[in-house]
Amino acid sequence: MSDGNAPSGNETSISQQAQLMAIQGPLVGTCFSITSAVAVIGSAQEVQIPLSGSGVQPRHAGLKWTGGTWEIFDLTGDQVHVNDIPTTHRILGGGEIFRIGDHELHFTIETGQKDDTPTHVSSPRVTGAVLSIEVERGKVLGVNEKIEIEVGPGYTIGRTPDNDLAIRDPLASRRHCRIEVIEDDAVLTDLGSLNGTHLEGRAVHQATLRAGDLIVVGKTALRCLRATRS
User: Fold this and answer.
1) How many CB atoms lie within 10 A of CB 115?
2) Checking phi first, is residue 59 left (phi over 0); if not, alpha (psi -120 to 50) or beta?
3) Strand order in 38-42's β-sheet?
4) What is the β-pairing status of strands 49-50 and 38-42?
5) Do 41 and 62 form a contact (C-beta atoms < 8 A)?
6) Whether pLDDT at 120 is above 50
7) Distance of alpha carbon 154 from alpha carbon 52, whole angstroms
């Protein structure tokens, strides 16, 4: 669809807000809330979802709330990739991944339903480095909850309940990453996850944690506030 046929902003009331989470690329970990009926993705300053880098057009794609559904439109005259399939227009159900230039964006729809499923956090096994982690985004203990972790032989984070910290995140692998004590440091290690483990905006296999570091697992963001020996 050409830019001249971009979605118009006539509809202003939506019953399902949406989000785009950058899961790959320069903005990994960034979350864009979509609260209006029309949102344009591109490199232009005036768009609602600004991206930069090669392969991103000023007005690249448009999201529109129409008749109770979200839709995506290509605005470049070419095609936008949704779940790795090139398309000019698609009705969205939530969970899709858009690829635009160097960016991969995970699209979710806010249902307004509260998920009260308890998070599984096991008791510490062997005292090592004490980490204070704040949940910035995602369904772990709730946004802005702080988690005190006593890391022993290996504290695992992943999607299934057998992890020390289970996160309700469709982009997280079953056993995604591990935090462990190596000498005097708390070390983050990716466990061969599908979407990778990101630390401070870059994919890492293994890295030492420092206070202030942002860990991104799928669309879940964890801020390391303290990483010291107990």
Assistant:
1) 7
2) beta
3) 49-50, 38-42, 61-66, 69-74, 89-92
4) parallel
5) yes
6) no
7) 37
CA distances from 38 to 6, 44, 59, 173, 183 (A): 10, 16, 13, 32, 52
Measured CA to CA, the distance from residue 130 to residue 151 in angstroms comes to 6
Assess contact for 61 and 79: CB atoms under 8 A: no
Phi/psi-derived region of residue 68, left when phi > 0, alpha when psi is between -120 and 50, beta in every other case: left
The residue whose two tokens read 């979802």 is 49
Domains of the chain: 18-109 (2.60.200.20), 131-226 (2.60.200.20)
Average pLDDT over residues 15-23: 82
The model's pTM is 0.50
CA distance 95 to 82: 10
* Residue 52 burial (CB count, 10 A): 13
Counted residue by residue, the chain has a size of 230
Residue with tokens 């949940």: 135
Break the chain down into helix, strand, coil percent, rounded to 5: 0, 45, 50
Which of 4-8, 77-81, 174-178 bottoms out in mean pLDDT, i.e. has the lowest? Answer: 4-8
Q: What does each C-alpha distance from 219 to 67, 172, 216 come to in angstroms?
A: 28, 8, 7
What are the structure tokens assigned to 111, written together? 């249902």
Question: Among 123, 89, 93, 108, which Cα is nearest to 17's?
Answer: 108
DSSP secondary structure code for residue 122 in this structure: P
Q: In angstroms, how far is the first alpha carbon of the chain from the final one?
A: 58
